[in-house]
Amino acid sequence: MLKVKDLNLVYENKNHVLKDINFEVKNGEIFGIIGLSGAGKSSLLRTLNLLQRPTSGNIFLDEIDITTVDKKDLRNLRKKISIVFQHFNLLSTRNVFDNIALPLEIEKKDIKEIEKKVDKILEEVNLSHKKSSYPSQLSGGEKQRTAIARGMINNPEILLLDEPTSALDPQTTQKILDLILDINKRFNLSIIIVTHEMDVIKKICDKVVYLKNGSVEFFGPVHELFVEKENEIFKEFYQEINIDWSRAKQLSSKETIKLLKIVFWGKHTHEAVLDEVSKKYDVKVNILYGKIEHLKDNPYGTLIINVESENGKINDFIKELDSKVYSLEVLQ
Ligand SMILES: Nc1ncnc2c1ncn2[C@@H]1O[C@H](COP(=O)(O)OP(=O)(O)OP(=O)(O)O)[C@@H](O)[C@H]1O
């Protein structure tokens, strides 16, 4: 487990970029760091394997505070927590095989062992056919696979990925995300991924830290970010719900009409809860906005509805519906 405690980073020019950061990453988790440009995501990632020393605070890897590690133990630390850089950092004069072999050569490993390990990892990232190619002969996705393979060659406990899909087209992005999910499952490897793409968080992450101006604005499971914090965080990140609120409120201005926001989560998302409860209380439902999305393995749905009842049972209807959905908010 990786635990970050009260971490601060002040650059030499007095720029205080990370402020009292706290979070933890459990073994085998895929953990996202998200935020707007300049929020401090890359700075945070680089402190996690001490490429950038924090100004204060602690980073515990399995209870040991790595911020106290001295220079000679840094190489061992970076074998345990390895990083894949945003622009891959492949050496242009070395082919794919030799790029991946580099960390083992630095360790002065036996040539036979190097060949065996590199060939195995090449197979795992589906790149055996490109082992003799040079970086200039590779597509963006192949460069990323090479960089990930090099990051994996020393069997790290944690793999840090800086914007692994930012330079890729949507199809290649999907393939790289599948690869990340695959290595996470196969090796029970913890993966910490910096991204500015909400879709990446949705598709592969278990937990997430949302950074704003260097502070943790949210830390928790991805579905909580989407479901509970949607209004606060998403408004500044992107306008998630596209609805004409003044019209919706005007429609709901009568005493007998209420405007509701309902969130469904997990297996209940596909159940006909709304239909059943509205029939039971004889309430008319008018859907103003609706969508179902997928977060890793679970669907979640959002509905904005107004409901109308002349029989005085609208509050009973709301109470029962509230007990059957993930969350319900009376907007008006
Ligand atoms: N070495 C440095 N010295 C001083 N300031 C720096 C240094 N590196 C980054 N910064 C500043 O720290 C802030 C955070 O930068 P960082 O690259 O960590 O943000 P980010 O969230 O990763 O941004 P982006 O999404 O644009 O890559 C920015 O204001 C940046 O200019």
Set out the fold topology.
Elements (H helix, E strand, L loop, with lengths): L1 E9 L5 E10 L4 E6 L5 H7 L8 E6 L2 E2 L8 H7 E4 L11 H11 L4 H14 L15 H13 L5 E5 L7 H18 L2 E6 L2 H7 L2 E6 L2 E7 H6 L2 H8 L7 H7 L5 E9 L7 H9 L2 E12 L2 E11 L5 H11 L2 E4 L2
Parallel strand pairs: 3-8, 3-9, 6-7, 7-8
Antiparallel strand pairs: 1-2, 1-4, 4-5, 9-10, 11-13, 11-14, 12-13
This protein binds adenosine-5'-triphosphate.
Task: Describe the overall structure.
It is a single chain. This protein has 332 residues and is of the alpha/beta class. The protein has helices at residues 41-47, 74-80, 96-106, 111-124, 140-152, 170-187, 198-204, 222-227, 230-237, 245-251, 273-281, 314-324; strands at residues 2-10, 16-25, 30-35, 56-61, 64-65, 81-84, 158-162, 190-195, 207-212, 215-221, 257-265, 284-295, 298-308, 327-330. The strands form three sheets. The protein has a six-stranded mixed β-sheet, with helices on both faces. Strands 2-1-4-5 form a four-stranded antiparallel β-sheet, with no helix packed on it. Strands 12-13-11-14 form a four-stranded antiparallel β-sheet. The model has no long low-confidence stretch (mean pLDDT 89). The protein binds adenosine-5'-triphosphate. Residues 2-238 form the ABC transporter domain. This is D-methionine transport system ATP-binding protein. Pfam families: ABC_tran (PF00005), NIL (PF09383).
